[in-house]
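Long-time lurker, first post. I've been practising inverse folding by hand and with some scripts of my own, and I keep getting stuck on stretches where the structure tokens seem ambiguous. Below is the full token string for one chain I'm working on. Before anyone asks, I'm not after the true native sequence, just a reasonable design that respects the backbone. If someone could post their per-position residues I'd love to compare against what I wrote down in my notebook.
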């Protein structure tokens, strides 16, 4: 339980329906843990409903999260810590989501290898609202294959049926595992393990990361047959819904998976991923945002580091220098907008090493900040070294660092 609490605390997270924060939990545990422990041992513990929260998806729409209370997150984490070593060794080598020592990058690399090995057509099956549509009975049957303890099975079932708080009303949960609970990722893998075993039995090459999976076959006709048969398997055996509108059979080199595509057998970020990146940078560098440049540079650096930490897997380097130039220009615009008055612009540029004549000419210009950011005076004063010293990261350097570390 101590280990579970440390993990929950490190994951952070918002309060559940009881409003208890992570900071308040230690005092609560000191006063009430003995009674909670006793109810767990007696099999009478009743989880609280989860708090529903909608977050926007990158590709549009919303993802519904179910946020358990802190005490329920700790108990779920403890269950997951015990069950993971029991179930994980039996999982497929082609399953990568929510597993120790495995990552989305590993899944992308394996998919690229399958393409290089001759997989010419990708069968991309989209499960409709997978986490919300899992059949409880079908899931518990699969959990019970390896877990015999009735108290634990009863407790897991209680978490599945705990309900959800929506606009002050508790609604029952007859389907689904709540995204946001520490136990849900493992339950998702247990549910989909039968799919993995079926694909292995048929001899297919495939990659699965959580509910996102792609099967590689040799031809378009084979892809259509596999799509139809796997959809029947999912709907009849696992009682899951397939989104027919989003499922497709395409050339492997046109396949999009976990934010990447595979032209000429290379790993390249998708246009959608790059466009989302640009939109976020535009948001972080909008000139009307009334925050300090120190705060802005911190937020931008955090985003660039996170984005490149994932998408530096791309083997396509060419756009990066141009993106770095664009970001620097956006930041220079923000400085000019913040300085605002001609006298301030002159003083700041002179302090940065620009001649008084150049500074005065620029400050008197009628051009807007975006055009002025391209001028020699601004690029001299706010040169690449100055911006780097203020905390601006280079995408090109982050990409090079990632590939040199491999």
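-- Answer (accepted) --
I ran through it position by position. Result:
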């Amino acid at each position: 339980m101590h280990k579970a609490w440390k993990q929950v605390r490190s994951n952070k997270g918002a309060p559940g329906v009881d409003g208890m924060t992570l900071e308040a939990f230690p005092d609560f545990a000191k006063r009430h843990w003995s009674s909670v422990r006793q109810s767990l041992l007696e099999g009478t513990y009743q989880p609280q409903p989860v708090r529903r929260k909608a977050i926007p998806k990158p590709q549009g729409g919303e993802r519904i999260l179910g946020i358990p209370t802190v005490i329920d997150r700790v108990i779920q984490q403890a269950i997951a810590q015990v069950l993971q070593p029991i179930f994980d060794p039996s999982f497929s080598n082609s399953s990568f989501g929510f597993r120790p020592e495995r990552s989305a990058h590993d899944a992308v690399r394996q998919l690229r290898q399958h393409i290089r090995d001759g997989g010419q057509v990708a069968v991309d099956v989209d499960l409709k609202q997978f986490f919300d549509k899992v059949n409880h009975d079908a899931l518990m049957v699969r959990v019970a294959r390896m877990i015999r303890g009735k108290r634990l099975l009863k407790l897991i079932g209680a978490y599945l049926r705990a309900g959800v708080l929506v606009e002050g009303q508790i609604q029952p949960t007859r389907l689904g595992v709540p995204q946001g609970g520490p136990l849900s990722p493992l339950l998702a893998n247990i549910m989909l393990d039968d799919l993995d075993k079926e694909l292995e039995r048929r001899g297919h090459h495939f990659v699965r990361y959580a509910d996102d999976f792609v099967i590689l076959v040799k031809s378009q006709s084979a892809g259509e047959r596999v799509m139809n048969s796997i959809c029947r398997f999912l709907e009849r055996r696992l009682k899951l819904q397939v989104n027919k509108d989003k499922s497709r059979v395409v050339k492997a080199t046109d396949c999009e998976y976990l934010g990447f595509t595979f032209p000429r057998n290379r790993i390249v970020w998708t246009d959608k991923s790059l466009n989302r990146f640009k939109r976020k940078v535009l948001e972080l560098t909008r000139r009307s945002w009334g925050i300090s440049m120190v705060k802005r540079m911190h937020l931008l650096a955090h985003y660039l580091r996170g984005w490149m930490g994932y998408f530096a897997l791309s083997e396509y380097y060419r756009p990066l220098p141009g993106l770095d130039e664009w970001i620097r220009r956006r930041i220079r615009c923000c400085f000019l907008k913040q300085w605002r008055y001609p006298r301030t612009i002159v003083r700041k540029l002179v302090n940065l090493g620009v001649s008084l004549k150049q500074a005065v000419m620029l400050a008197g210009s009628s051009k807007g900040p975006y055009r002025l950011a391209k001028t020699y005076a601004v690029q001299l004063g706010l040169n690449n070294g100055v911006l780097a010293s203020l905390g601006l990261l280079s995408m090109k350097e982050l990409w090079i660092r990632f590939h040199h570390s491999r």
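A couple of notes from the structure itself: DSSP finds 18 helices and eleven strands in the chain. Residues 319-339 form the longest helix (21 residues). Happy to go over any region you disagree with.
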